[in-house]
Write a structure and sequence with these properties.
29 strands, alpha/beta, 668 residues, 23 helices, nine-stranded mixed beta sheet, five-stranded parallel beta sheet, elongated
Length: 668
């Protein structure tokens, strides 16, 4: 691995902990800009010297309260400078930090505080202080509740309460009397010290605190910096909560190591306007936040006049035919390339600027799967949106890198700097579970050695619980959690939701149902075509038809659907691929019990109603004559008679084989 230039910086190279990097930055570049925060409509700027002053003062104030090395500090609040300063301060003293989401309830905070053995709460405002006061007497050993926004707290009399500013004032007095003490405390920090407790979501039981070391933070930052070009001094918007380990890696770690200028929005409601003001170089959002941005664009276009709508449609179509084509490794047509400068000048450039993404060279999505169509929409605008994938326990693992990658994947494996651990190795077990080892490793769950052991295989690999596969060109495809996979008669597990979700994004497919269980050897699908889209396609291609039934069974339509399924099959391992499919001969209708009123498939009913068609999918026959009872709009009842074709996608059932060669392994 080539060491990123940022990590060759002496401030990073000679440091083992985050506070050591901060101290070095403030010593070497005291006047360089480190952070910005918008408060009461005014942007305030903080240099490295300013940040160090706040961190040092708060750390020494904490120490005077009785906070000691190895103890836990809990942070509750939005992304504001004090949140970051308090974290660095606790780590300067050798403490552990637990950030929690601002909307977590008092009951949830009680559990987290008890499990983490919290000694000090640092809360943003009255709302968070009220929660802390409610739970403080249920937790042994709490020594203080510190707040940084005192509005509404004037009448509070609890002896636990401390003002952030007052604590900093005491810390500065201590520093003036013992100017070397803080530096000595920072110097005592080690790479393997626990910096953060990052709690799991608790979907399979009570949340568990993953012990995150400084080595882990450096390791994961180096993986990102080695894979994605983040320039020193890049402007970064911190928005995702530090309760999520991804923000610990980006805002709190890469912010120091790159370094970046970390920008704090005025509040969650002002994020969009703040992005436009800042036009940052780098940002990380969850899928929901990117989808919200996409919805804003779509909503504005719905309210625009016909000329603007047509202009927007034309420009994004040009962007699709150039930017997305290049992204997917194809050469754009000459006509599209010639139109691009005009599309940029009239629409795309302004669209990016209005969203605050005009300079966003690093735009990342992490935390869950997002629809490939949303990725394509942003790429059509000229925003190079990329996916990242990982697990809290083992770190960030893959990312979309380079100029060309598949939007349906989670990207390529990132390399580990040997300074921080062994090469990252992966293997895919027979049930498709991803297992990983290497790098800074899995530090274990705080206070839960039994749960730590359960997370590891007998030979020491971390079992992610994620079902994945690798494409032929080395990109990772995330399917689902292993527990949500469906098993075939052969013993092979496949991801029904992954297949259905991807295929629903085809403009030709309105809905579909995958078939395949422990009674069947392979996967098949029943397709509900999109009549509106395909009727237009048929007209444009001079294909005559009379009814939905007629159109659905046309060889040209079957070929279109086959191509869509074959494209998704390339992302799936052999045993999970859709082998055969058929198109429903009629539109699915909630009045006939085929759909719920919310348009969800009634799967058991459909499988029974179209039982002859299902049997034909597995018998190998090319078609079947169906008779389906139908109810017309005027209430009359009748019978639909149709010959329904069954189409092979790639292989015939007799050619189907299941991999039985043991786990696949790879190393980086």
């Amino acid at each position: 691995m080539t060491v990123p230039t940022q990590l060759a910086d002496q401030a990073v190279k000679n440091s083992a902990t985050l506070p050591q990097v901060l101290l070095a930055r403030a010593t070497r570049s005291p006047d360089a800009l480190a952070e910005r925060h918008k408060r009461l409509g005014i942007w305030r700027e903080f240099t490295w010297a300013d940040v160090l002053d706040r961190v040092r003062a708060f750390a020494l104030g904490l120490e005077k309260l009785g906070f000691q090395r190895g103890e836990t500090l809990m942070l509750i609040g939005e992304n504001e400078p004090e949140h970051f300063w308090a974290e660095y301060a606790a780590q300067s003293l050798g403490g552990m930090v637990l950030s929690v989401y601002p909307d977590q309830t008092a009951d949830e905070i009680v559990y987290l505080a008890q499990d983490s053995q919290t000694r000090v709460f640092v809360a943003q405002d009255q709302e968070q202080v009220d929660k802390c006061l409610e739970v403080a007497d249920k937790i042994d050993g709490v020594i203080s509740i510190v707040f940084w926004d005192g509005a509404g707290l004037w009448g509070y009399t609890s002896p636990l309460l401390r003002d952030f500013k007052d604590l900093c004032k005491q810390g500065r007095a201590i520093h003036s009397e013992a100017p070397q003490h803080f530096a000595d405390q920072v110097a005592a920090g080690l790479a393997n010290d626990i910096a953060v407790l990052s709690y799991t979501s608790g979907t399979t039981g009570l949340p568990k605190g993953v012990m995150i070391s400084h080595r882990y933070m450096f390791d994961n930052a180096s993986r990102i910096l080695g894979a994605i070009d983040i320039q020193p001094g890049a402007g970064y918007l911190t928005y995702i909560s530090p309760a999520w380990v991804t923000e610990q890696i980006f805002g709190l770690t890469i912010g120091l190591l790159a370094p970046m200028v970390v920008n704090f929005p005025e509040g969650p409601e002002e994020v969009l306007s703040n992005i436009r003001e800042l036009a940052v170089d780098a940002l990380v959002f969850s899928p929901r936040q990117w989808e919200n941005l996409a919805s804003i664009v779509q909503a504005r276009m719905l309210g625009a006049g016909p000329v603007r709508r047509r202009l927007h449609s034309w420009a994004t179509d040009v962007g699709q035919r150039v930017y997305v084509e290049r992204l997917e490794g194809r050469v754009p047509s000459l006509a599209a390339r010639l139109q691009l400068p005009l599309a940029e000048a009239l629409v795309l450039h302004h669209l990016r600027d209005n969203l605050g993404l005009g300079r966003a060279d690093v735009a990342l999505c992490g935390g869950a799967l997002m629809a490939p169509d949303v990725f394509r929409m942003f790429h059509a605008m000229g925003v190079k949106l990329r996916n990242i994938y990982g697990a809290t326990e083992i770190g960030l693992l893959t990312a979309h890198t380079g100029a060309s990658y598949q939007l349906e994947t989670s990207g390529r494996w990132m390399e580990c700097d040997p300074s921080y651990g062994d090469p990252v190795e992966y293997r895919i077990a027979e049930d498709s579970e991803l297992q990983v080892r290497g790098g800074s490793g899995f530090g274990g769950y705080f206070g839960k050695p039994d749960k730590t052991a359960e997370a590891l295989t007998d030979d020491g690999w971390y079992a992610t619980g994620d079902a994945v596969s690798m494409t032929d060109d080395g990109e990772l495809v995330f399917f689902d959690r292993v527990k949500d996979m469906r098993q075939l008669k052969t013993g092979h597990s496949y991801p029904p939701q992954f297949i259905e979700t991807r295929l629903r994004y085809s403009p030709f497919i309105k809905d579909l149902m995958t078939l395949g269980d422990q009674k069947r050897d392979f996967v098949t699908a029943l397709i509900n075509i999109d009549m509106e889209v395909l009727s237009r396609w048929a007209e444009e291609n001079n294909l005559g038809f009379s009814t939905y039934t007629d159109l659905s069974q046309k060889p040209e339509i079957l070929s279109l659907i086959r191509t869509e399924i074959a494209r998704i099959n390339t992302l799936l391992p052999d045993g999970s691929r859709v082998i055969r499919f058929a198109n429903f001969p009629k539109e699915l209708d909630p009045d006939e019990g085929e759909l719920t009123r919310s348009r969800k498939l009634c799967r058991a009913f459909l499988e029974d109603r179209y039982g002859d068609l299902v049997n034909t999918l597995y018998s190998g026959a090319p078609d079947v004559d169906l008779e389906i009872a139908v109810t017309y709009q005027d209430g009359r009842k009748g019978v639909l008679k149709a010959k329904v074709a069954v189409t092979d996608v790639e292989t015939t059932p007799s050619q189907l084989t299941t991999q039985k060669n043991g786990p696949k392994e790879g190393a980086l």
